[in-house]
Amino acid sequence: MIRANETLQPLGDRVVIELDEADKTSASGNVVIPDTAADVPFTGVALNVGPDVKSVKIGHRVVFGKYSGSRVPFEGGQLLLCREEEIFAIVVMLPHR
Questions:
Q1: Rounded to an integer, what distance in angstroms lies between the CA atom of residue 20 and that of residue 79?
Q2: Which of 8, 52, 69, 92 would you call most buried, defined as having the most Cβ atoms within 10 angstroms of its Cβ?
Q3: Mean pLDDT of residues grouped by 10 in the chain (97 residues)?
Q4: The pTM is what?
């Protein structure tokens, strides 16, 4: 377990991602889904990047695969540690029309 005064500095082409919160209600909004049955989110925010990462920057929202990387327990939650090649896309905000 990583302590409160520590952080993860990824090596090589690895990225540390803070996972987005899983939606805990059903599509209709009437049923609350327990944590054990909720889907793991496939999006998150890059918290730190290794020195060989070229496309992803700290703060980018990214999309990754269900089985990408390794989950690391951190301050009561989980972080994802994965290779840059396991990230499918960067979420880009569209300008207002």
A1: 10
A2: 69
A3: 75 94 56 56 91 96 94 86 96 86
A4: 0.76
